[in-house]
């Protein structure tokens, strides 16, 4: 059974994934925004891994 914290992290990871995809498909993607989103996603992924 997943904890609420782990579920919240996985939801945040999914949101970041969608935001990255949206930014990548814009006509002129902002590389700063993409870098920041990817960095956030990596931090969340590492936190999920440490929670297991």
Automatic annotation (TrEMBL):
InterPro entries: DUF465, DUF465_sf. It comes from the Bacteria. This is YdcH family protein. It comes from Sphingomonas lycopersici. The lineage of its organism: Bacteria, Pseudomonadati, Pseudomonadota, Alphaproteobacteria, Sphingomonadales.
């Amino acid at each position: 059974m997943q904890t609420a914290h782990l579920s919240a992290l996985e939801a945040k990871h999914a949101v970041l994934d969608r935001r990255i995809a949206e930014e990548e498909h814009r006509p002129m993607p902002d590389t700063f925004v993409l870098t920041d989103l990817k960095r956030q996603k990596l931090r969340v992924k590492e936190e999920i891994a440490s929670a297991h």
